[in-house]
Amino acid sequence: MKYTQLGRTGLKVSRLVLGTMNFGPQTDEADSHAIMDAALNAGINFFDTANVYGWGENKGRTEEIIGNWFAKNPAHRDATVLATKVYGNMAADGDAWPNHDKLSALNIRRAVDASLKRLRTDHIDVYQFHHVDRATPFEEIWQAIDVLIQQGKILYAGSSNFPGYKIAQANEIAARRGGTIGLVSEQCLYNLFERRAEMEVIPAAQEYGLGVIPWSPLHGGMLGGVIKKEVAGGRRTSGRTAETLTNPAVRAQIQSYEDLLDKHGLEPGETALAWLLTRPGVTGPIVGPRTAEQLESAIRASELELSEELLTDLNEIFPGPGPSPEAFAW
Question: Which terminus in the chain has less CB density within 10 A, N or C?
Fold first, then answer.
């Protein structure tokens, strides 16, 4: 496994990030622990979760599964760079009390203590703001983060789903306050099919020294050989991916992608991950395996070298917006 520094920090993380959103809802605890064992054995040291994972009445369950894994072997915690998120409403279903969500100082304090308890650890390495909170000023957010860092409960702060201007605003206010070093990472939707992050988010992240952590690297399965699987399985896909594929232009685009990779003898999902690892500013994509086999595929992708010819062909199929600010201006 290859490693890189997370943005402008000295923290070394693997080029693949283990996403845990499926732990609980789709993957039971025993299988989740087996996947984490396999990931760590393969050299993946960066694990990502969120306080709301588990969803609905089970929100928080994913953090509990990870915490139980740490408790089984304390060495796991020392080997892992642990990231979780705050923003979602963690109040019990039907509880109408305010201040159980978003990024007020009160909720940040409450949420971090609850996550630490579920994760069965004394600190979180990267504490991430899951979404923008338009109602809370960054002065208040950074004051709360400064306290958590001083208490030793977190080491770094990151963002998720932030537009470029909010990355800039957050870090300018952090610099003006002179406390925390500001955001060190940004999780964003970014893949071959969805490249809008290249217009503002990634340039802002690079300018301010944030590591970029793409989520949904296969675009919900769209880049994982969906048409090929339809043919092999004899039935059409379902859900959002199926709805998107009803667009003839999109279906032709995905077919061209799969045909190209078939010609090169490459698996679509592995190629999509490998492509992200070639992109400027990218620390590593989040892979969210439901099974050990899916994890093995992701690990193979991290070792895949894509030729310049193939990268050019991929860019022709999925051209992206082009460089910024030219993409806006002409």
Answer: C
Write the DSSP symbol of residue 3: E
Please compute the mean of the pLDDT values over residues 93-101 and round it to a whole number.
81
202/188 Cα distance (integer angstroms): 9
Query: What is the C-alpha separation between 214 and 132, in angstroms, rounded?
Result: 17
| Phi, psi of 235, deg, nearest 5 | -145, 155
**CA 283/CA 202 separation, integer angstroms:** 11
Active site residue 156: no
pTM of structure: 0.96
Q: How confident is the model at residue 204 (pLDDT cuts 50, 70, 90)?
A: very high
Q: If you ran DSSP here, which 8-state letter would residue 92 be given?
A: P
What percent of the chain has a predicted confidence (pLDDT) above 70? 98
CA–CA separation, 100 and 109 (whole Å): 11
Query: Residue 292 CB: number of other CB atoms within 10 A?
Result: 14
